[in-house]
């Protein structure tokens, strides 16, 4: 569709498209999104991203680091808008890509995809300013209401495929659980999978966490700071020196499909004990101030037992016990979520049962953090065949598909975490951005 | 070219306010924050300020309150004092005595010696002979009032507490929890009488500055000092951010301003026998000698503890943390006036940097030590990485204004009214007591119901939330009509922006869709959970705390 491709090209150049086109785009996007369930099923391989917050140039950097659409299959966990200068361009580009490549792009809702929040945190102001009216803001908000609340990733592999950045002396692929790469594809740290002890419900979950869930006491600076990446690590893992090395190992051909990964913007809700209960919500509305839908978009994990009140004033805090019970009950190996700034770009907590992924580098131009994306590779053992079905088969199946696969995983005791490859990147250089003409000031100054 | 005189000459502060002492020398059109007479101080019913703004309707009430009037009056009074002055041909500025009664700062001054040439004033012979005195941060000032010196000492102590509460290392989250320890120390010091010293100069017991600096101390009949200090400390403590939320914003800045306004009302800045001040001299001492040092302490706090912006529109707000330096700083660069003229609405002082210079880092560095506007921009440049026009688009656009700093100053004041004083999320925490009173100002007009107010009032009355409709956000950036009508000038007649027109309630522009969020229930949200690491920002606008 050439109109769409032209819109994509224009948005990639960071130029907004006309209001009429936005209206059309949002209309098409709604038609597409309405067909999706509250919990979208996504098949590995997939690249999972956290908050964007209108940092358009950093989103371009993300695509550079993670691969372009449609070559890479993306899952964005919400908070596309607010705070940054380019919420409009960022969201519309993602939406265009969604409409253009529906199976290569999954967008779920963040707490900022809301009328009330966007009026407080900037997106509303931005639309008014860039279009002179609130129409575009309204079109976008209508799309927000249709965004899915979560996603289930199936068929992720326990092993990492080889990558060009792998040093020559890399450990066998099936022993690597976590790899951290810098923006140039160089491995900056690597964590081996501990020998598993069978029989434990969360077997093998005592993995070394690359940047430090407090619970396992392992931390590393290796992914923070610069993309140049030192390889130092206190983790009980073999970390190769950075640099490009030989490739072409046959990694990825061994291992089992890992348990499913639940992706959600914020976290869990005391009202949701089963993923299937998310599927029953009526999501097509403004994010409520409370209740399950609100919690999924607002909650945060914390070092507490059970549930706690959130200082945000919405959602809850939830502890490791909550996550472990939830993952066990739902045959999940991992929850991926966003919603909280992490200086190192990602943070695994609670024995790697939940990870925060943050994709807005130097947040708000001043936080000095790096960003990350999470790559889950495709299992090629043949055991995940159900999970690899193409197209829309699992999109709105009411949960039948995922259950089938999860049962299979359960029987095999393969709930240990999928192999994770994090790519860490910094804010895009600013030299390429032209300075705009000054715009008319607000009426206060007239 | 000159701006019209104040459109309406209103009476001196209404009788419901603390009795101004011998303020016979006031020019009615340039109101001043009244000072309690020494006798009324003794009997003044000081109270501990309490929160009053709970709903949108309360916000409407606030805009007609005595507190609102006094805040506005004080800001305009300070603002005008910073505007450069035309001087008569003799350039000996330090000895110039202005007899224009308009804006002398203390009410207990004996009538200034009459200087007939000046007293009959205002027509200065010709522009070419006019000398200009401006008031940069880094120029020597006449000796500061003792209270100003004491306040600086207090601020130095406050800043020193940072060394006692170093930021915590460890997993880096945004706001540093060590700020809570710092704030705890601040509370301890205040409870231990930190503020006492700045109250000492009241009643002239503080001695004159520059003589010996020692005060003769309390004496009898000073019980009121204790209760006054109790009232004022709430505003002082409110001026240094939120320990719970680890943030700092314009509401905190407003609180500190109210603290200074309260001190003003108590008369601590007036010192009988100090000699004559020039027009606005004491006000300038308050801004340049206390408020700017306060901002520097706050900036250090923000940097040290990574305090978040309190309620941020992201790049679409004027500034993450501050507002007043943009008012005062633009006043410093505005076209000079005589002592009887109102604040200009356009024009720049000779030699002032251009508004466009704020987008040039080198220019900002050049002027940040002398001007509050550039000082604030310099701090932004210190903190943010990225193109200025991208992270600060509102300031960038304002830098394109062609009509000079006077225009910017006027706009900033209107924007402050709409974006700070009329914003529920900002002023909801402001407490009211005897000095900033919740009582209705009998002279107040019904506030122009901005869209923000209508939206908030609706939400508030039904649910008691702090939600704001789209209208609230609109005004900050969008270049659309703002709630404030643009009159011919800033009326000095009363709380200036309160009733400058009466367009009546504006229908919500853009409109809040009917599918808006349902009202919250009584679930006690907003109570802090485990504090350790939950400050990565977005808070529910409907949260109560």
From TrEMBL, chain A:
It is an enzyme of class 3 (hydrolase). The active site is at residue 112. Residues 108-113 form the Serine/threonine specific protein phosphatases domain. Residues 242-252 have a biased composition (Gly residues). Its EC number is 3.1.3.16. InterPro entries: Calcineurin-like_PHP, Metallo-depent_PP-like, PPA2-like, Ser/Thr-sp_prot-phosphatase. SMART domains: PP2Ac. The keyword Ribosomal protein does not apply. It holds the Pfam family Metallophos. Keywords: Hydrolase, Manganese, Metal-binding. Residues 211-241 have a biased composition (Low complexity). Gene3D superfamilies: 3.60.21.10. It comes from the Eukaryota. Residues 189-252 are annotated as: Disordered. One of its GO terms (molecular function) is protein serine/threonine phosphatase activity. It catalyses: O-phospho-L-threonyl-[protein] + H2O = L-threonyl-[protein] + phosphate. Belongs to the PPP phosphatase family. This is Serine/threonine-protein phosphatase. It comes from Canariomyces notabilis.
UniProtKB/TrEMBL annotation, chain B:
The keyword Cytoplasm applies. Keywords: Cytoplasm, Isomerase, Nucleus, Rotamase. GO terms for cellular component: cytoplasm; nucleus; protein phosphatase type 2A complex. Residues 1-52, 85-139, 339-361, 459-545 are annotated as: Disordered. Its EC number is 5.2.1.8. Residues 11-40, 88-107, 459-479 have a biased composition (Low complexity). The keyword Phosphoprotein does not apply. One of its GO terms (molecular function) is protein tyrosine phosphatase activator activity. Pfam families: PTPA. It is found in: Cytoplasm; Nucleus. Residues 1-10, 505-522 have a biased composition (Pro residues). InterPro entries: Phstyr_phstse_ac, PTPA_C_lid, PTPA_sf. GO terms for biological process: mitotic spindle organization. Residues 41-50, 115-133 have a biased composition (Polar residues). It comes from the Eukaryota. It catalyses: [protein]-peptidylproline (omega=180) = [protein]-peptidylproline (omega=0). PPIases accelerate the folding of proteins. It catalyzes the cis-trans isomerization of proline imidic peptide bonds in oligopeptides. Acts as a regulatory subunit for PP2A-like phosphatases modulating their activity or substrate specificity, probably by inducing a conformational change in the catalytic subunit, a direct target of the PPIase. Can reactivate inactive phosphatase PP2A-phosphatase methylesterase complexes (PP2Ai) in presence of ATP and Mg(2+) by dissociating the inactive form from the complex. PANTHER family: SERINE/THREONINE-PROTEIN PHOSPHATASE 2A REGULATORY SUBUNIT B, SERINE_THREONINE-PROTEIN PHOSPHATASE 2A ACTIVATOR 1. Belongs to the PTPA-type PPIase family. This is Serine/threonine-protein phosphatase 2A activator.
């Amino acid at each position: 569709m050439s109109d769409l491709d032209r819109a994509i090209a224009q948005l990639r150049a960071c130029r907004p498209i006309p209001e009429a086109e936005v209206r059309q785009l949002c209309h098409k996007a709604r038609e597409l999104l309405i067909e999706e369930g509250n919990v979208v099923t996504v098949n590995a391989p997939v690249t999972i991203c956290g908050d964007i917050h209108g940092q358009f140039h950093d989103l371009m950097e993300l695509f550079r680091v993670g691969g372009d659409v449609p070559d890479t299959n993306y899952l964005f966990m919400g908070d596309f808008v607010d705070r940054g200068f380019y919420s409009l361009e960022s969201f519309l580009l993602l939406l265009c890509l969604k409409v253009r490549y529906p199976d290569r792009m999954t967008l779920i809702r963040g707490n900022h995809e809301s009328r009330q929040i966007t009026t407080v945190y900037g997106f509303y102001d931005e639309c008014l300013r860039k279009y002179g009216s609130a129409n575009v803001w309204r079109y976008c908000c209508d799309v927000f209401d249709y965004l899915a609340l979560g996603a289930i990733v199936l068929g992720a592999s326990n092993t990492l495929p080889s990558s060009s950045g792998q040093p020559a002396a890399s450990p066998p692929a099936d022993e690597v659980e976590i790899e951290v790469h810098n923006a140039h594809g160089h491995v900056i740290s690597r964590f081996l999978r501990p020998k598993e002890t069978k029989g434990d419900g969360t077997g093998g979950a005592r993995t070394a966490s690359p940047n430090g869930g407090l619970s396992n006491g392992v931390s590393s600076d290796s992914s923070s700071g610069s993309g140049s990446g030192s390889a130092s690590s206190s983790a009980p893992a073999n970390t190769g020196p950075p640099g490009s090395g030989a490739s072409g190992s046959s990694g990825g051909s061994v291992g089992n499909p890992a348990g499913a990964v639940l992706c959600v913007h914020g976290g869990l809700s005391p009202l949701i004990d089963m993923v299937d209960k998310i599927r029953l919500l009526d999501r097509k509305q403004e994010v409520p101030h409370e209740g399950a839908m609100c919690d999924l978009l607002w909650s945060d994990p914390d070092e507490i037992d059970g549930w706690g009140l959130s200082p945000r004033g919405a959602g809850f805090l939830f502890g490791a016990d909550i996550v472990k019970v939830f993952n066990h009950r739902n045959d999940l190996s991992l929850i991926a979520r966003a919603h909280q700034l992490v200086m190192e770009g990602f943070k695994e907590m609670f024995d790697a049962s939940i990870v925060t992924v943050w994709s807005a580098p130097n947040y708000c131009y001043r936080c000095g953090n790096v960003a990350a994306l999470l790559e889950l590779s495709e299992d090629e053992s043949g055991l995940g065949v159900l999970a690899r079905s193409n197209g829309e088969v699992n999109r709105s199946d009411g949960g039948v598909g995922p259950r089938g696969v999860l049962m299979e995983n359960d029987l095999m005791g393969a709930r240990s975490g999928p192999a994770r490859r994090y790519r860490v990147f910094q804010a895009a250089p600013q030299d390429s951005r032209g300075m705009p003409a000054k715009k008319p000031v607000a009426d206060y100054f007239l | 070219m000159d701006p019209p005189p104040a459109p309406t000459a209103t009476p001196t502060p209404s009788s419901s306010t603390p009795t101004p002492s011998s303020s016979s020398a006031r020019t009615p059109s340039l109101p001043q924050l009244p000072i309690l007479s020494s006798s009324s101080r003794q009997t003044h019913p000081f109270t501990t300020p309490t929160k009053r703004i709970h709903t949108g309707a309360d916000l409407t009430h606030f805009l007609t309150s005595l507190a609102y009037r006094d805040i506005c009056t004080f800001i305009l009074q300070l603002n005008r004092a910073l505007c450069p002055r035309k001087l008569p041909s003799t350039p000996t500025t330090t000895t110039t005595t202005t007899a224009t009664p308009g804006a002398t700062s203390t009410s207990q001054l004996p009538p200034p010696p009459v200087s007939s040439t000046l007293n009959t004033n205002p027509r200065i012979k010709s522009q070419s002979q006019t000398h200009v005195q401006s008031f940069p941060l880094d120029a020597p000032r006449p000796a500061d009032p003792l209270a100003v010196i004491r306040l600086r000492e207090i601020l130095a102590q406050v800043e020193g507490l940072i060394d006692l509460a170093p930021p915590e290392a460890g997993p880096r989250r945004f706001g540093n929890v060590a700020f809570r320890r710092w704030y705890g120390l601040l509370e301890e010091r205040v409870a231990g009488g930190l503020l006492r010293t700045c109250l000492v100069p009241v009643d002239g017991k503080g001695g004159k500055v520059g003589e010996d600096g020692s005060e003769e101390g309390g004496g009898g009949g000073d019980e009121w000092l204790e209760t006054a200090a109790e009232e004022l400390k709430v505003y002082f403590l409110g001026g240094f951010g939120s320990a719970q939320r680890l943030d700092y914003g314009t509401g905190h800045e407003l609180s500190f301003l109210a603290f200074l306004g309260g001190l003003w009302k108590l008369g601590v800045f007036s010192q009988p026998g100090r000699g004559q001040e020039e027009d606005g001299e004491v006000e300038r001492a308050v801004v340049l000698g206390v408020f700017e040092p306060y901002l520097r302490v706050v900036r250090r706090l923000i940097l040290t503890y990574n305090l978040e912006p309190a309620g941020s529109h992201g790049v679409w707000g004027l500034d993450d943390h501050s507002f007043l330096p943009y008012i005062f700083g633009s006043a410093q660069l505005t076209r000079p006036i005589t002592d009887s003229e109102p604040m200009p609405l356009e024009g720049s002082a000779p030699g002032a940097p251009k508004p466009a210079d704020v987008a040039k880092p080198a220019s900002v560095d050049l002027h940040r030590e002398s001007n509050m506007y550039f000082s604030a921009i310099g701090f932004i440049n210190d903190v943010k990485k990225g193109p200025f026009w991208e992270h600060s688009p509102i300031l960038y656009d304002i830098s394109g204004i062609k009509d000079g700093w006077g225009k910017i100053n006027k706009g900033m004041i209107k924007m402050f009214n709409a974006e700070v004083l009329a914003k529920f999320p900002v002023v909801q925490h402001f407490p009211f007591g005897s000095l900033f009173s919740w009582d209705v100002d009998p002279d107040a007009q019904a506030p122009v119901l901005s869209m923000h107010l209508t939206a908030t009032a609706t939400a508030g009355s039904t649910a008691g939330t702090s939600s704001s409709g789209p209208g609230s956000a609109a005004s900050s950036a969008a270049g659309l009509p703002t709630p404030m009508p643009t009159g011919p000038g800033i009326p000095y007649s009363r709380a200036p922006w309160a009733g400058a027109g009466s367009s009546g309630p504006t229908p919500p522009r853009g409109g809040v869709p009917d599918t808006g969020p349902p009202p919250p229930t009584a679930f006690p949200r907003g109570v802090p959970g485990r504090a350790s690491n939950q400050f990565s920002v977005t808070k529910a606008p409907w949260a109560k705390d």
